[in-house]
Batch of 2 targets.
Target 1
Amino acid sequence: MCDANMRHVCLISGGKDSTALAIYMMNRHPDINMEYVFCDTHKELPETYEFLMRIEAYLGRQIIRLSSDFGERGFDHYLRMYRGYLPSAQTRWCTRKLKIEPFEKYIGENQAFLYIGIRADEYREGYISTKPNIKPIFPFKDDGIVINDVFRILENSGVGLPNYYKWRTRSGCYFCFFQRKNEWVGLLENHPELFAMASQYEKPEEGYTWQAGESLQELMQPERIEIIKERSLKRLVDAAARRRPKNLIEAFTGEFTEAEGTDSCLICHL
Ligand code: SF4
C-alpha cells in the first residue's frame, strides 16, 4: 500500500457507505495520500451537494469533482446522441458516459488503488475495472464492516447521514431509474421542480419513460400516490417483521439494507 508510485483514490458517491469508507480510511491510515473523487453528473440532488460539503469539512480536504461536460458534453448532450433514448437498467449509457469514462480519464495510465465502500454484509461487486492499472480494493469487506458499523462511523464522526435519506435510499441523479416508486413520490414532495424536470424528459407516446409502464404524469395522480404509499408502508412493516427488529431504528436500517439490492448502479452507489 505504501508504494510511492501508486495513487490512492476513494470514490465518493454521496451515499453513506462511500462516505463512511473515506472517514474510516482517513482515521486508520492517515499516512495515505488519498484523493477523494466525486463523479458529478450535474443532475444530483441538492442534498448530495450539501452532504459533500459536510464530508469535506470533516476530511479537511477538497473532494475533486469529475465531470464529463467538457464542452457541453453533459447528460443532455448524450441524451441527444442517443436520440432521446432514456437510460435504463438494461441500457445504462449514463453510468459509462457520465461516471466511468470521466473517472478512467482522470486516472489515465497511472497505477491506482481504488477504494470501494462495499460492506461485508453486501453481495454486489461494484465497479469492475476494465483497466489493469486500476486495482479495486474493498476495506470494509476485508475488515468485516457491516451496516451498523457504517452508521456508527457516520454518527461518531458527526458527519451523519445525507438529508435525502428521509425519503430516498440512494444517492445519484434526481431522475435515476433505479428509484422505487415511493422515492419518486418523495422527489415530488421534496423537490417538485426536479420532479417536473424529470417528467419533461419523458415522451410516453414514443415509449420513453423513466420506469417501464408508467409515466411520471400518471404516477403523480393523488389516487396513485395513495396506493404507492400504502404498498411502501406494507413492505416496510413486512421487512421489519421478517427481521424481528429490536426497535424502530433497526426496522428502518433493515429497510435500507433490503432496498440496496443488486440492481444499483455499479459506480454511482458505491
Ligand atoms: S445515478 Fe442513475 S441516472 Fe445517474 S448516472 Fe447513475 S444510474 Fe444513471
Target 2
Amino acid sequence: MNLDDLAKLNPSAAWRLSEDDGDPLETREWLEALDALIAAEGPERATFLLKQLLQHARTRRVPLPQVLNTPYLNTISLAEQAPFPGNLELEQRLSALVRWNALAMVVRANQASAELGGHIASYASAADLFEVGFNHFFRAGGETPESRGDLVYFQPHSAPGVYARAFLEGRLSAEQLDHYRRETGFRNGAARVGEGTPTPNEKDQSAAESTSRAHSGPGLSSYPHPWLMPNFWQFPTGSMGLGPLFAIYQARFLRYLEHRSLAKTYARKVWAFVGDGEMDEPESLAGLSIAAREGLDNLVFVVNCNLQRLDGPVRGNGSIIQELEGLFAGAGWNVIKLLWGSDWDPLFARDTHMLLLRAFHETVDGEFQMLSATDGRFNREHFFNKYPELAQLTAHLSDDDIDRLRRGGHDPVKIHAAYHAAVRHRGQPTVILAKTKKGYGMGTAGQGRMTTHQQKKLDAEALRDFRDRFALPLADAQVEGVEFHKPAEDSPEMKYLHARRAKLGGYLPTRSSACEALPTPAAEAFARFVLEAEGKEMSTTMAFVRMLGALVKDAALGPRIVPIIADEARTFGMADLFRHIGIYSPLGQLYEPEDSAQISYYREAKNGQILEEGINEAGAIASWVAAGTSYSTNGLPMLPFYIFYSMFGFQRVGDLLWAAADSRTRGFLLGATAGRTTLSGEGLQHEDGTSHLIASTVPNCRAYDPCFAYELAVIVEHGMRRMLTEQNDEFYYVTVMNENYAQPSAPWALKVARSAPLAPPSPGPSPREGSEDTTSDVRAGILRGLYRVRASGLGAARVRLLGAGTILREALAAAELLESEFGVGADVYSATSFTELRREAMALERAARLGESRTAAWIAQQLPANGAPVVAASDYVSSVPDLIRPWIADRYVALGTDGFGRSDTRAALRAFFEVDRRSIALAALNAVDPALAARARASWGLSAEVPPWAR
Ligand SMILES: Cc1ncc(C[n+]2csc(CCOP(=O)(O)OP(=O)(O)O)c2C)c(N)n1
C-alpha cells in the first residue's frame, strides 16, 4: 500500500509518513548545522536549542507535528548500551530449558485431559524478558520491611514459565508441574488426595511439598492466584488490566510508607509485565497519569509487544508500539523502545540512507505478524527485497540468518540494556515497549499464527523442531515423551542459576504473610459515644467517622490506619480529618489553600495519612489493596478504611474486589450513603439495592448491614481483631447510612449503666428489664447476623419481624402498628448480616451431609419452629433476605427493594418499594390472619397498582 492511501485510510498511522521535501539542499544544511552543534557542544546543548526553537515556533503559530513519537528504532543506541554482565551462553541454555519445561507442562496437562492445558505462546514471547529479570534485576528480600525485595506482577498467561523456572530452582517438583491446573486433589471424581491410601504420585507429591520452599498446595493454579498458592504468588493478574493498575498503586503505596516514615522502601522496584493487547483495557491506562505525576521512578512496566492478542493482531492496520509510545510519553513516562536485537546492529550501521527505518515505517503490525509467521526466505522477499538497497544490505545473509534476526524482546543483551537504563532513570516511571514474536520458537505450528494463543498441542515434529531451535539436550524419546528436564545440580547451568539468585537475595515469586500481630482496641476505647448513645440522633456514617477519628489517635494502631476516599470526604462529613491527619501528596502543599483560614482546611502534606484518590473508585480500590496486603508485601500490617458511595463499590469495581479477595487483602470497605431508599434524592444510578447480594458471592468478604451505631462499633472492633491480631485473610464490607435517627445505647451498656434511659425514643429497640439477652448473646448475635431487639408486648409473639439497616426501624414501627391496631404481638430482630447467617448454615448443613456432627445453625436457634411466621425486610433486593429462607421452618416472607431506584423522600420510596412499616405489617397480617390483612389494606389504601416489574 502506498503512503498516501495509508494516510487517507488511517490518519492514526501518520507517524509513519515522510512528507515531500521542497528544498532538500536547505534541509541538508539545517541537518548538518545540527550535527556540527552536537559534535561541538554535545547533545544537551542541542536539546536546549531545539526546545527553544520549538517554543519559538509555537509562539509564531507554526503548525508542528506530534512530538510524542520517535523513530521505529531502539531508544538505546548501541553506543549507549550497558555491557551485558552475565554469561550469555549459560543464560541462553537456561532459558531454553525453562521454555521447554513450560511447554511440556501445558502439553502434558492437555494430554492428561483435553479440558486442561494452558497457554504456550504468551510465555514463548515473554521468556527472555522474564529470564533477564530473574538473572539480573528482580531482587528478592528478607522478612523485615527494610529488606523486602522487588514486587513483580507477571503476565498471567505466562505463568507456566514462572513455574518452569521454580522447577529448575528446586522450588517445585516435577509432580507439581504435572498437577498444573489440577488443584482440587480429586482424581477423576474419585476420593480426594489425603483421604484413603495415597497413590505413589500423591506420596511423591507430598514429599515434594514438604521440601518445597515456596508452595504447599496440591496443584499449580492456572494463573497467579495468592488465594490458591499463598506461599508463591503475590499478585493476581489473571483479569486483564488489573495487574498494571495494581502495580501503579503499589509503587505509590511504597512511597507513601516511606514518606510517612513507616518503612524504608526507596530501593525497591515494582515491575509489571503486561500484554500489548491488555493495554486496551481502560484499567491498564487508568493510572498512567498518577504514576507520572507522582514521579514513581520505582516503577517499571514491560509491555510484551508480540503484536497479537487472542483473536488476532492488536493493531493490524497500525502500530501498537508507536501508539503506546505516544500514550505513555503523553502521560509523562520515560519510554524505552526495545525493538531490534543485536543481530540488526551491523545492518543499521551500514544502512546509511536509513532505508530500514523507512521500511519499518511502511510496515503495519499485521504485516509484522505475517513476517513473524513465515521463514527467512519469505522475509527476504517481502521485506528486504522491497528496495534494491535493502536487498543489497542483506545479500550476504542466508535465509536462515534472516530467520534468526531477533526482535529486541528476544535478545538478552538488549533487554538487559533496557532494564539497566530503566532502573537507573530518575523522576519518572519507565515503560519498556518490547517487540517480540508470539509463540516464539513454536515454528510453523505456532509462531505468529492467528490461532497461536490457544494452542496447547504440538506434534512430535514440532517438538523436535523446538528442541533443535533451542539446542536442548534431549533425545528424541525424551522429546516425544514430553519429559521435564533438569540438569544435574552440579552442572554449570544450575550453579549459575542458583548463584544469580543468591546474588539477588533469593527466589521469587515468594509470598510471605509473616508479620507482627497488632493488638487492637476494644469498642469501649474508640466508640463509647455510641455504646452509650442514649438516644442521641446520628447517622451510622457520622458514627463511623467519629470512630475513625478516635482510631487514628490510638497510639499503636493509629499510624497504621489508611483512610481512603474518592472525592466524597465532605459528603461523609470527614473534612475535619484533612487538617488532623493531612492528605498524602509527595509534593507536600505548594499553594496556600483557599480555605486556609478555616479550622479544617484542605491540608496536603508529604506525610499526610489520607489517600484522597479523586473521582477514581478503581484507583481507590487499588490503594486499598496495596494497604490491605502490606502485611505481606512489606511485613507491615496496615489497616485501610475505604469509604465510598455504596453503589460505586461492588457494582462499579466488582472485579477489582474479586482480585482484592484473591490477594488476601485485609481491610474495611464502608459502603456509605447506602440503601436504595435511604439515599433518598439521588435516583436510579446512585441508590444501591444490590451490593450485599454481590458481597455474598465473595468467599472471604464478611458483609454487614447494621442499623445501630453500637452494632457498627462491635463489627469494627471484631474485624480489626480478626484481621490484625488473629491475622485472618478476610475483609469487611459494612454499609453505613446517611439517615439521622435516635441511636440507642448498646443493651449491655444499658445493663451496666442503669442510670441510662431504658427506652430510647421510639422507634428504637427496647431491650426490656429481665430480657434474656446477655452482653455476649447480643455481641454474638451482631456478629453472626441476627439477634432480638424487641420482644412482643402482648405475650408470645404471633409474628417475628426481621429488619436490616435503617429498615429495622420500619420493622420496629410495624411491630408497634401490629400490636396497637391489630392486637398481634411481634418480636423484632436486627438482621445485621443475612450473608453471614447463610454462610454458617450452609457450612453446617454440608458438614451434616458428610456425616459430621451437626449443631443447629444460629439462624435456626434464633428462629426456632414455633408456628409464628417470619417477615424480613431490608433496603436491598429481596434476594438478600431470601438467602436464609431454607433454614426458617415457619412461613417466611422476604421483602426488598427490587427494581430501579428513583428519587423521592425516604418515606415515599419505602412505601413505593413496599419495605415501609405498613408493608411489613401487611405482610405479617397476611401470614397471620387474612381477614386482618384485608382490614389493613382497606384502612391504609394499599393496592397492587405498580407491578413489581415496573419498579
Ligand atoms: C478482563 C479479561 N478479559 C479477557 C481475558 C481473556 N484473555 C486472556 S489472555 C487474552 C489475550 C492476551 O493478549 P495480550 O495481552 O496481547 O497478551 P499475549 O498473550 O499476547 O502476550 C485474553 C483476551 C482475560 N483474561 N481478562
